[in-house]
């Protein structure tokens, strides 16, 4: 039997008391939630100016914006495609100062003063680039999603070979590389085509190069 002075706890009383304590514990007050949590700051921005397809652009951008997103979302040049967005498929290939790059892997603010060419800058439906004509002639486009990146790469690849830049399969580094099927396949290996138009693309490139690979 309880003796005088002992605490008189009932099971119902303990549960009710515990619930009220828990309620007080988990509900933060305005005064306790705010300290130490700074208001969300605006993202850092930077000004950048470059030329795209012959047109100068001056922009102020979130420094984290990729060149691909600037082309598509800010300049509305949607010919450049977003594929994997990880630099693995080549669908976003553009030509910067004569060299092909994956535009998803580079920040736009890194290209201040650069000259950028997208598929829209190579040719138009009324006046196509010779590489675009060749892709049509040899059925190198199929579903078409990867085609802008393939064509930008193909144009730059022929310029690379013409400039004497060797590739991984160039056998003799003391001589200028030639347009061969193995050179073209190696240099185009960063552009993935799920339709399997590779052989037709090689045919189109050799046609433009004026050689028989």
How would you describe this protein?
It is a single chain. With 213 residues, this protein is an alpha+beta fold. Helix content is 35%, strand content 13%. A five-stranded mixed β-sheet has the order 2-1-5-3-4. A hairpin with a 2-residue loop joins strand 1 (45-52) and strand 2 (55-62). Helix 5 crosses helix 8 (198-209). The radius of gyration is 30 Å and the shape is globular.
Short synopsis of the structure:
The chain has 213 residues and is an alpha+beta fold. Helices cover 35% and strands 13% of the residues. The chain has a 5-stranded mixed beta sheet.
Main attributes of the structure:
5-stranded mixed β-sheet, disordered N terminus, alpha+beta, globular
Helix and strand layout, with pairings?
Blueprint: H1 11-26, H2 30-33, E1 45-52, E2 55-62, H3 67-74, E3 93-96, E4 99-102, E5 115-117, H4 119-122, H5 130-137, H6 147-162, H7 181-187, H8 198-209
Parallel strand pairs: 1-5
Antiparallel strand pairs: 1-2, 3-4, 3-5
- Tally of alpha and pi helices: 8
Estimated structural class:
alpha+beta
Low-pLDDT residue intervals, each spanning 5 or more residues: 1-5, 17-31
Strand order, sheet with most strands: 2-1-5-3-4
Overall pLDDT:
87
Radius of gyration based on Cα positions: 30 Å
- Share in helix: 25-40%
* Distance separating the two termini: 103 Å
- The number of strands is 5
Approximate strand percentage: 5-15%
Structural shape: globular
